[in-house]
Structure formats: C-alpha cells, structure tokens
Write a structure and sequence with these properties.
globular; nine-stranded mixed β-sheet; Immunoglobulin-like; 2 domains; mainly beta; seven-stranded antiparallel β-sheet
Length: about 290
C-alpha cells in the first residue's frame, strides 16, 4: 500500500486542494483570525452561492469515552488518543452532494474533515471518531462545504496531542474474536463498493458505499444494535462512524487501498474486512473544487 505523500508536493491536485482549507490554515497560523473553541465564519468565495454567514454556525466538541465534553488544555490543545467529534450545526440542511448533481443551493451543504493534511473526508456525518492517529500532535480541520465542495465559510481547527502509546497508523486492521462482539451485531455483514470508481479517480476522489446485513430491525433500534463502520485510506487514520457512505477527496496520484470494516461500539473490527483498490491517474485533477 502507498503512504500518503506530503501535502506540499508539487502535483496540481495537492496545490488546488490546498485552497479548500486556505482559510483554516490562515486561522491556524494567525494570518487571518485566531482559532477559538467556537466556529469561524466568513464571506463566500468568488462564484459561491451568496449565503449570509450569520445564518450558519458550526461548533465542534471533543467527547470523552462516556460522551462527556473534553476540556481544552494549555495552548488550545486537547489531550486524547482517539478524537471523538460531535458537530453542532445551525442554518444549513445536511445533504449528500451526490443527490444534488453538484448544484449549489444556499441552504444545503455537508462537512469536510481533514487530519494532518491527509485526504479530505466529505460526509454528512456530524458524529464521528478518528482512530490510528499515532503519537504526537495532530491537527483536525472541519468546515462546511456546498454541494460542489466549495467552502461555505464556517470552519474550525482542532489540535490534539496523542500519547506515546497511541495506536500507530501502520497497525493492520484485523478482525477480532466474536466473543467480544455484542450479540445484537454479531451476525452483521458488510458489502463495500466504490461508486463511479474510474470517473471519480480521475479527479482524485473516491466514494465508498456500504451495505450492512444481518442486523434485525429490533436490534437496529438499540444503542448496540447498529455496528460502527471503519473507513481508512492506505495507512492514514481510521474514520469511525455509523454513516454508510463517505467520500475521500484530494487523493494523490498512484495506487491506493481503502479498507472498510464493521466495528463494535468500542471500535474493535470484526467480521470480514473489505479492501478496495484504487488507481488515481497522474493526469487527474481536482476540477470539482
């Protein structure tokens, strides 16, 4: 599997993709406005649907193991090995951009997450966790995006510091013994596929759709009756969510592997692990941005 290239590579995709989070990078370095625990809002970019920033709001919270909000530490840095994010939104309708044909609409959008300049994760999920970050400092960028993936303004930068014993990115995603899997989801099975694989790969993108079977309707209504899903591209961080569709953007040219697995509420993989191969051509572009 290919490791991610540094974000500063000279490829056109990386250069164009960097524009997406330019405002967030400015906030991070203090060139624009300072990062705070709340949201940042600003005027729409050129060509973007006009939206009154005051009508939209994004607020990101880091949660502990029991769902409690974590307190920020010295220098605005959180201490956690497994960031669990909950995003509170106002003034926007969350919608899968694939259902809109990429046509902007002022009240519609979705979220972009990015860890350490890895590929962008586009999703409607407002509750997700990151695993396999590895030790040391990490930066997570979160912003609202329009149906065509252009920024809508509200954004936030979260800084975390993981311990020296944090699970490394290089750890292989393996299944665990079913003995440790809650009975409600023990029979669950997944089927994962890449949507419009070749077409999206030309733009440095990949959309993963997952079907989950083997979970009864009764169990699905319980807190343990819906398995988590882990998504991972190459040896980047794992994304843990119950959303059955997410997209990766700003993927570097070359061969990549997206790994998908079901997981327990404690994020332990179980059952068959799906591996989806992807080839991003050198001539690809991030034209959708």
């Amino acid at each position: 599997m290919k490791s991610m290239q540094p974000f500063g590579s000279a490829t056109r995709r990386a250069l164009i993709a960097s524009i997406i989070f330019a405002a967030a990078a400015a906030a991070q370095s203090g060139m624009d406005h300072p990062t705070t625990s709340g949201s940042q809002t600003g005027a729409p970019m050129s060509g973007q649907t006009a939206v009154d920033p005051s009508e939209m709001n994004l607020d990101v919270h880091l949660l502990g193991k029991s769902g409690e909000m974590l307190s920020v530490g010295t220098g605005g840095v959180y201490t956690t090995d497994h960031p669990h994010l909950r995003v509170d939104l106002q003034g926007i309708e969350m919608i899968d951009p694939a259902t809109t044909g990429g046509i902007k609409k002022a009240v519609q959008g979705h979220l972009h997450y990015r860890v350490d300049r890895q590929p962008i994760i586009a999703t409607t999920a407002t509750d997700l966790s990151f695993r396999n970050l590895g030790p040391g400092p990490h930066t997570i960028e979160i912003m609202l995006a329009a149906n065509d993936h252009t920024p809508l303004g509200p954004q936030q930068v979260i800084r975390v510091n993981a311990s020296e014993t944090a699970t490394p990115r290089t750890e292989t995603m393996d299944e665990t013994s079913l003995a440790n899997v809650p009975e409600d989801i023990r029979g669950a099975k997944l089927k994962a596929e890449l949507v419009s694989k070749d077409e999206k790969a030309k733009k440095g993108e990949a959309t993963v759709h997952v079907d989950v079977s083997g979970v009864s309707a009764k169990s699905a209504g319980t807190t343990t009756g819906v398995p988590m899903i882990l998504y991972r591209i190459d040896d980047g961080p794992s994304v843990a969510t119950r959303e059955r569709k997410i997209s990766f953007h700003a993927i570097e040219p070359g061969k990549h592997t997206i790994t998908v697995a079901l997981a327990t509420p404690d994020y332990a993989p179980f059952g068959k692990v799906a591996k989806l191969d992807l080839q991003v051509p050198e001539a690809g572009s991030a034209a959708s941005y």
